[in-house]
Each structure stands twice: as C-alpha cells, then as structure tokens.
Write a structure and sequence with these properties.
Cyclin A, domain 1
C-alpha cells in the first residue's frame, strides 16, 4: 500500500494505492485503477515504503478501524446513514478504539516517540533525520525485547541518543549541539543530561549502529558565520564600513578554514570544537580588518553573545593557541603591514 499524490474526486481526501486501485483513505471510494510497478528505492528501511503498522516515527497499529481511517460519518452494513445518536456513539468508540490499538502494550514506545516528534519540531530538523532516529530507536528496543542487550532504564535518554546520532550522520551544514538537544528535552520536562546520553552510547554494542561521532570545528563554521551576519549589531557595523554582507561571510569561512587546516588536532588540545570554532572566526575577523585596513567588526563580547559561549573562553583560545597562527597568517597575506597583534581590552585583569 502506498500514497498517491492525487486527491479523491468526491471528498478531496488523500488517495492510497492498494491492490492495483487508487482508494480514498477518508471515504473509501475507488477512484481509478493503476498498473503496479516494482520500486527500485525500496531498500531504505525507514522510509515511507514501509507498511502503516511499521512506520518508525509513530506508534501505529495493524487491524480494522471503525469505518475508514479518518471517517467521522458512519453507515450501517447496507450503506444507510446511522441516526444522530448512533453517529455520536460510534464516533466516541472510534476515537477510543483507535488510540488503544495504537498504544496497546507499547506505552513506553508511544511516549518516547511522541517526545521525539516534539523535540524534532522545536529543533526544525528534517523528516528524514527524524525517521532515521526513530529507526535506530526501534533497532535498540527490538534488541532489548529479544534480550540481546540489557534492559534500558530510561527510553527518553535512548531517544535523545538516537536523535543525536541521526543528526551527526546527516552531515548537516548547521549541526545541532548535544547541549541544545538536552535543553529541549529538559524544557519538555524530561530528566536527560549529556552525561547520561554519552554513557548510554558507550554501553550499547557497536553492531547496533548507535554510536556518537566526534564533531570537528570545521563542521560549525557555516552555522557560526550565518548567525554573525544575521545579527543586527553586526549588520549595522558592516553598513557603516560599506562591507557587503555575503562577501564578508565568505571571507570569514575561507580564512577560518585555512586557520583550522594549519592547526592540527594535537594543537587544539581536545578543546570544545564549537567554542574553538568561534575563537577561530574571531581571528579570521581580525585578519579581514588588517587586509581591508578598517577596524575589526567583531568584539569578543559581541561574538560571545551571538554564539552563546563564554567571553573568557574566546580570549583563552586566542592567547594560548591562536595568537601565533594569527600573526603568521597576517604576515603571509599582508607582508608589508605591521603584524603586531594588540590584545583586546578586557574587563578582567590577568592574574598571572
């Protein structure tokens, strides 16, 4: 059974293809016959080709409905319309029966996947990423039910882990941080922490495919620069200096990638990749100021507010790791200029 893009001629309901016919899923009227052909892309196990009872991102049930799926007006076996009292009774029974068939003996999965759908909506992730997360969740719970792995005490943590893995697998240009996922789950009233998610990832067998991949600073550059150029304060400074916003963003990304390419993982010293990427973008802005002979557009405080990181973290990365790289880069690009880097003013005096 599969959905069709057409609409019913009688009630404008969605059509589904079943047994070589196009049938309305709302009123049940057969609209047309079709030729069934073999699908070539049916190898993806979490896509829409799965049967209704196997849809991964919701808990659905197999079996009969009262009437049709979204039918709210009922007829008897002979096709005659039921009286108003009977309509009310069967409408109430249908609502309760449909809910029971969906979540019967699957209450934990129902609550977990409902939370997944809500968190996905808040984060604005794609439907494919959400389905992949639900598919990973089903893999783990299936292994749990068959006693191939130990019982998992908190399925909400499992959902959060599967969502994190799915997002990292997608290789998005705007990656979502673990802390952001944790905060959304907490806002919805769930007891989830980053430590519990990482701990669960470590104890699950690798063959299940639920393992966290380490992000690199390069993955966050597009997201950071997009946030910068959309900031009103930054836009005002760019306008005063008559700098094109798109060109400025492209230069930030290009110079940041060059700095990161010249800074190996050992030199980064296991620092938080997102915060380190923010510090690199700060250095790239200082290089742009030297090249264009104007004052720098970003301050440490403004950048910290835009990217939601601590100001002292940017200052620490700049002084301990990136300052020498910054001087070398300026000498390479603008050899005739004064490459001496002045320390930005700080509200906090150095105690060492």
């Amino acid at each position: 059974m599969e959905k069709n893009n057409g609409l019913c001629k009688h009630c404008n309901g969605p059509l589904i293809q079943t047994r070589g016919e196009l049938v309305c899923s709302d009123c049940g009227v057969v609209n047309n016959s079709v030729i069934i052909s073999e699908k070539n892309d049916s190898h993806i196990p979490w896509d829409h080709e799965m049967s209704p009872g196997k849809r991964v991102h919701i808990v659905d049930g197999l079996g009969s409905y009262i009437g049709y799926h979204n039918d709210g007006y009922f007829h008897d076996g002979k096709g005659s319309i039921l009286p108003s009292k009977e309509q009310y009774k069967f409408r109430k029974l249908k609502r309760k029966y449909n809910l029971r068939i969906k979540i019967g003996n699957h209450e934990t999965d129902y609550r977990s996947l409902m939370s997944l759908n809500r968190v996905s909506g808040y984060l604005g992730i794609s439907d494919g990423v959400k389905k992949r997360a639900a598919y990973l969740y089903k893999i783990v719970t299936t292994a749990e039910n068959s006693k191939k792995i130990n019982k998992i005490s908190n399925h909400i943590v499992l959902v959060a882990l599967c969502l994190m893995v799915s997002i990292r697998e997608s290789a998005s240009n705007a990656p979502i941080r673990l802390s952001e996922i944790v905060n959304i789950f907490k806002d919805l009233g769930h007891r989830v922490s980053g430590k519990s998610i990482v701990k669960l990832a470590q104890i699950l067998p690798s063959e299940l495919g639920v393992s966290l991949k380490i992000r690199k600073s390069e993955d966050y550059l597009q997201r950071i620069t997009s946030s910068i150029v959309e900031n009103l304060e930054v836009c005002g400074r760019l306008k005063q200096l008559e700098v094109n916003k798109k060109e400025y963003e492209n230069k930030l990304i290009q110079l940041s990638r060059e700095i990161l390419c010249e800074t190996n993982l050992r030199a980064r010293g296991g620092r938080n990749p997102y915060i380190f990427a923010v510090s690199v973008v700060y250095c790239a802005d200082r290089i742009i100021g030297k090249i264009s002979a104007h004052r720098q557009i970003l301050t440490q405080k403004a950048l910290a507010d835009i990217c939601n990181v601590a100001e002292y973290s940017i200052r620490d990365h700049h002084r301990t790791v990136l300052k020498e790289k910054l001087i070398e880069k300026i000498k390479e690009i603008v050899p005739e200029s004064d490459s001496e880097i002045d320390e930005p003013e700080s509200r906090f005096p150095m105690l060492f």
